[in-house]
Design brief:
- The complex is a heterodimer.
- Chain A is built from 4 helices and 8 strands, in the order E-H-E-H-E-E-H-E-H-E-E-E.
- By secondary structure, chain A is of the alpha+beta class.
- Chain A has one domain: Cyclic phosphodiesterase (Cyclic Phosphodiesterase, Chain: A, Alpha-Beta Complex).
- In chain A, the strands form 2 sheets. In chain A, strands 2-1-7-8 form a 4-stranded antiparallel β-sheet. In chain A, strands 5-4-3-6 form a 4-stranded antiparallel β-sheet, covered by helices on one side.
- In chain A, strand 3 and strand 4 form a beta hairpin.
- The longest helix of chain A is centred in the N-terminal third of the chain and has 18 residues.
- The N and C termini of chain A lie far apart (47 Å).
- By secondary structure, chain B is of the alpha+beta class.
- Chain B has a single domain, classed as Cyclic phosphodiesterase (Cyclic Phosphodiesterase, Chain: A, Alpha-Beta Complex).
- Chain B is built from 6 helices and 8 strands, in the order E-H-E-H-E-E-H-E-H-E-E-E-H-H.
- Chain B is globular, with a radius of gyration of 19 Å.
- The chains are: A alpha+beta, B alpha+beta.
């Protein structure tokens, strides 16, 4: 029985990915390697592990769950314009920090995220686009003054969710697309 | 008179079945024998056919196409609860099912096929308890923790005979996917979307 990880994300367009990756590259130039350095820009919604059924090759819980969620999302969640407003950071205890691009959470956007959160049974959600994940506080102190000075504003249309999958016990496996579920476009006009 | 009647339930996967049977046996150790202690657990919503029995001579085959187009569904058990039975005397202890948004949608689709059940979905552990039995047993379940996600992949029609328990009459497997849902439920959706005004741009299917 093989175990896989399932990562559910909002995937911004290439244009945003290139920007975020330019920031990552700049970080690398100052502090060297860090986690998620070469991953594609994304907003994490949820992460799960699940056993894959050997017969159908379908994850046992995630499979039927996302079949149903697919049906609902296509019809009830409307494409939404997401705005990026500069940078912020998380603290992981006293020794580590994560720098991320901040998502503007006005009422409309946070209601929109809440609808997704409830539908996907996510317990806690703080939408953000990670730039430098869990770096030592010394590295953070080197980088943060630069980020404070950058005025980065951007926006993109979130047009669907992407579920990625990866083998849990293969160290070098990378995430591949398991399923894409588009949001509703028509209702936005109606 | 001993005429049969049918009861629609959702079957539990084996590992959850085992767990509930274990709980039923624990209950028996606490209060002794009680009604239904040996019956097979399932998820019930008090759902019965809406037509007289003779209509179902063909074994509920009219459900088949749409039921098999439904995908299996993920439910989550979240601790225990109890309710008073209609007679105001007996009580039932059950494993509570957490109703998430997607469960609500799924049940609407199911009920559109087989007719609506009258209760919230639950897994009965001990029913028709006398107040004495209940007072002994409830504290025991109140402090018990149970959290479990599982997949329900079968719709089961039980045939009950008033004086002699129930047996499985017919089972349908939920083997649909997002695609089969989309094609089979297009009509259903058209019927409902028409009546749904867009509320705050966030619309509801139902």
């Amino acid at each position: 029985m093989s175990l896989k990880y399932y990562l559910t994300v909002l995937s911004p367009p290439d244009r945003i990915d290139q920007k975020i990756n330019a920031f990552k590259k700049a970080c690398f130039n100052r502090i060297g390697n860090f986690q998620g350095m070469s991953s594609r820009a994304h907003i994490t919604l949820d992460i799960n592990s699940d056993e894959v059924d050997p017969g159908s090759q379908k994850p046992k819980l995630i499979g039927p769950f996302y079949d149903m969620v697919d049906f609902i999302i296509r019809r009830t969640i409307i494409v939404h314009n997401i705005r990026i407003t500069g940078f912020n950071f998380f603290s992981h205890g006293p020794a580590f920090r994560t720098i991320y691009a901040e998502i503007e959470l006005d009422k409309e956007t946070s209601d929109w995220f809440t609808a997704i959160k409830d539908l996907l049974m996510i317990k806690k959600l703080h939408p953000h686009i990670t730039i430098a994940r869990k770096i030592p506080v010394e590295a953070f102190n080197t980088l943060w003054p630069y980020f404070v000075k950058i005025n980065y504003k951007d926006e993109f249309l979130a047009d669907g969710i992407t579920v990625l999958e990866k083998e849990a016990d293969t160290k070098f496996d990378s995430y591949k697309v398991y399923k894409k579920i588009p949001f509703d476009r028509n209702l936005a006009v109606a | 008179m001993n005429s049969p009647f049918f009861h629609f339930v959702l079957s539990l996967p084996d590992h959850v079945n085992t767990e509930i049977v274990k709980l039923k046996n624990e209950a028996r150790r606490v209060i002794g024998d009680y009604p239904g202690m040996g019956s097979k657990p399932h998820i019930t919503t008090n759902n019965y056919p809406k037509h007289p029995v003779h209509v179902h001579d063909h074994g509920f085959s009219m459900f088949e196409r749409r039921l098999t187009a439904l995908p299996a569904v993920v439910f989550e058990i979240d601790s225990f609860d109890c309710f008073n039975e209609n007679n105001g005397y007996n009580k039932t202890i059950y494993a509570k099912i957490k109703m998430s948004d997607h469960n609500t949608y799924w049940l609407k689709l199911l009920w559109d096929i087989v007719g609506k059940g009258s209760g919230t979905p639950h897994i009965t552990i001990a029913r028709r308890l006398t107040p004495d039995q209940f007072n002994l047993l409830w504290p025991y379940f109140q402090k018990k923790e149970l959290k479990k996600k599982f997949v329900v992949s079968k719709f089961t029609i039980l045939k009950n005979l008033v004086n002699s328990g129930s047996s499985v009459y017919r089972e349908f497997e939920f083997k649909g996917s997002a695609d089969s849902l989309n094609s089979v439920y297009q009509n259903y959706l058209m019927r409902h979307v028409k009546n749904t005004a867009a509320v705050n741009k966030q619309t509801s299917l139902f």
